[in-house]
Amino acid sequence: MYKIIYSLIITLFFFHCAGEKKTATREAVEIADQYSKIINMDDAFNDIREMRLSDIADSVSFLPLETTQDGLVSNPNIFKFTPSFIYYYGVVFDWTGKFRGRIVKRGQGTYEDFGAGYLLFHDNHFYSKGNKLIEYDNTGSPTGKVRNLYVDVNDDLDRRAGVEFFNAGKNLAVYSYPNRIFFINTDFETICSRLVAGSDTLMPNGDHTGKNFVTYYQDNILFYNFMNDTIFYVIEDGLEPQWIVNFTEEHRLSTETLLTNYNIFRDEEIKILSSGMRNFENTKRVLLFDKKHIVNGAFETGNFILFPMQELTPLAPARGKEEKAPYILIFDKSTHQTFRVKGDGFVDDLSGLAGMTGKNYFFPTKGIVNEKMIHAVWPFEIFEFIKACKDAGRAVNPRLLEFSKTIQEDDNPVLILVHLKRK
């Protein structure tokens, strides 16, 4: 293929920071051929394939998270998975499931933080981001470095900023949804920032729940900018574009709608309820969101980029409708084809848990890290599933039976790790 220069009508940030805020520019990106850096997501709506788990994976393992008094998990939806560690609020587990400690201490002391919900590991140190930025050694003890974001606000990075806290080369980064990424050094000085959506006047609308803006592949950290359909690699003081996602507004929820202040929808809906009416079909929310599709993350592996997605059904209960289940869209890096996986995920012919949730599909609800698709279940669910199988006279996977002997019903969640095939 001849090399082609694409002029991208999007916000691309390809150069380095110079200590100031950077704004959107229009850049040309040279790519190896006309397909290699374009992901045609629209193609997938006409190419739907049934896939078994064994088509892309070669094994499944069970990882119980150690249960300790200081490391109890109550909500598995709050996990953050990185190549180094598994985080749950201020708690750290390693990839053997061992409890490594509670890093963040809640309180009002110098090295305590009521609001710390983000952790990362960088250059043999832990860092937390909440109302403060705090550095810890590799055992979780504070080193003395701290920045109180209540009082030390010399730029736009304050205690409210942040839905993602992640490594950026030798630096750290905070994504303040939806506007800007801040790049800070390990002395907690902001060295620059990048505007990634519209302007700084945009206010968060709360629609980032369940989205994975930052994901991990080998030594790369990916930032998926939902506002301009671009997947970037994070560098120490900026972003480098890797793929452009071609996703037209026939299926895509528009950027304008993504950034809409949702109060205008609520006000209209409250008026309808107050009037005694129950017809929501012509409300702004339904007209803008209904049957549109959203992307909840971009997970790169050696062979694919997987996109967990969902078709929206706004106000489903009030309209007498069922919400659509999430589904998976796959970009094959070798063929450059994009297709949708039929049903609610991969037909589960590997884990031994097929049918646990009433369906025979596996869905990586916790994402993908280090060539592992991740799902979490409570131990009691495993015991109930085994009992249901026995009561119905169905065979139980011997590996699952043996594993069940190592856990208790009230233990921390068990991670189901599906190991992807290598090239």
Description:
This protein has 423 residues and is mainly beta. Helix content is 11%, strand content 35%. The protein is built from 6 helices and 32 strands. It has helices at 53-56, 255-258, 263-274, 284-289, 379-391, 398-404, and strands at 4-7, 21-22, 28-31, 38-40, 48-49, 57-64, 79-81, 86-88, 91-93, 99-102, 118-122, 125-129, 132-136, 142-148, 164-168, 171-176, 180-184, 190-195, 214-217, 220-225, 230-235, 238-246, 293-295, 299-300, 304-311, 327-332, 338-341, 346-347, 361-362, 368-369, 372-377, 414-420. The strands form 8 sheets. Strands 5, 23, 24, 25, 26 and 27 form a 6-stranded mixed sheet that branches. The longest helix has 13 residues, at 379-391. The two termini are 23 Å apart. Mean pLDDT is 86; it is low at 1-15 and 22-35.
Which key terms come to mind for this protein?
11% helix; single chain; 423 residues; mainly beta; five-stranded mixed β-sheet; 6 helices; six-stranded mixed β-sheet
In short:
The chain is mainly beta and 423 residues long. It has helices spanning 53-56, 255-258, 263-274, 284-289, 379-391, 398-404, and strands at 4-7, 21-22, 28-31, 38-40, 48-49, 57-64, 79-81, 86-88, 91-93, 99-102, 118-122, 125-129, 132-136, 142-148, 164-168, 171-176, 180-184, 190-195, 214-217, 220-225, 230-235, 238-246, 293-295, 299-300, 304-311, 327-332, 338-341, 346-347, 361-362, 368-369, 372-377, 414-420.
